[in-house]
Specification:
Layout lengths: L9 E8 L6 E6 L3 E4 L5 H10 L9 E3 L5 H4 L2 H8 L2 E4 L1 H7 L6 E3 L5 E4 L2 E7 L8 E7 L2 E6 L7 H7 L4 E5 L4 H6 L4 H8 L7 H13 L5 E5 L8 H11 L5 E4 L6 E3 L3
Parallel strand pairs: 3-4, 4-5, 5-6, 10-11, 11-12, 12-13
Antiparallel strand pairs: 1-2, 1-14, 2-3, 7-8, 8-9, 9-10
């Protein structure tokens, strides 16, 4: 593990909201404020940032995982008003048709550093080109975000192993999805390799990490509105996990503060 550095030390972290409609994560150091995704309207983002004692104009870096609306529908207005440095793949920018004054292209497998924060990207298995997850290294304290992927990969496991905080998708309950109102094609898309992780998929991935080097804390995110419920996620983890883990289930759309050292 790398030594801690004051310039990149994580001061505060928040799940501003996560679920099938809107997603955003906030990280603050003494030098920078980093927002990962913005699926909220400008007004709603402002309201949620206020809960974290922040303002939209204070966002220095905007990292985008992929172009779907629940992660990016609030990006154009935020960028036009405040010009944070946007960091995303060329495919994501192309899909969003963004015109930004400050843009840093990234690609899967890349390693970057902004204001003392090390950032590693890895490919997601999702049905939009150029989707990436992020591993944020705050002077040796690592936060990893893995959502919107139909399958997990060795590169995801490598980043998640030993993470201080892992934000992991637990999107749907297979029984609810199968019996729910979605058309067959949508059900296939959600459960397919380019869709999302089920509660059982998330538990299996955590069990893999338990066999290696487990994360210190896990926040289960991106719960579906129609095909999941926090108690189903918790029940699945209780039934399937093969070892002890500090797990928090993030209710859909909830503002969740994340304690950091």
């Amino acid at each position: 593990m790398e030594p801690r550095s004051d310039s990149g030390t994580l001061r505060e972290a928040y799940v501003l909201g996560s679920g099938s409609s809107s997603n955003a994560y906030l990280f603050k150091t003494s030098e920078a404020t980093i927002l990962v995704d913005n699926g909220f309207s400008y007004r709603e983002l402002t309201r949620r940032l206020a809960l974290a004692r922040s303002l939209p104009r204070q966002i220095d870096y905007l990292l985008l995982t992929h172009s779907h609306g629940d992660h990016c529908k609030g990006v154009p207005l935020l960028v036009n008003r405040h010009s944070p440095l946007c960091c995303a793949t060329e495919q994501t920018f192309s899909a969003l048709s963004l015109s930004v004054p400050e843009y840093c292209p990234v690609e899967a497998g890349g390693v970057y550093q902004w204001s003392g924060v090390g950032v590693t990207t890895f490919a997601l298995s999702h049905d939009t080109p150029g989707a990436v997850g992020f591993s944020l290294n705050f002077g040796g304290f690592r936060c990893v975000i893995i959502t919107d992927t139909g399958v997990v990969s060795p590169s995801m496991a490598a980043e998640a192993e030993g993470a201080d905080i892992l934000f992991l998708e637990s999107n749907y309950c297979p029984d609810l999805l199968a019996s729910g109102p979605y058309p067959p094609a949508v059900k296939q898309r959600i459960s397919g390799s380019g869709g999302h992780l089920s509660n059982m998929d998330a538990a299996r991935f955590l069990n893999l990490l338990l066999e290696r080097r487990p994360p210190k804390r896990v926040f289960l995110c991106h719960l579906s509105a129609k095909n999941n419920h926090p108690h189903l996620v918790a029940d699945t983890m209780k039934a399937m996990l093969t070892g002890a883990l500090d797990v928090t289930v993030c209710p859909r759309d909830a503002f969740v503060p994340v304690s950091v050292p």
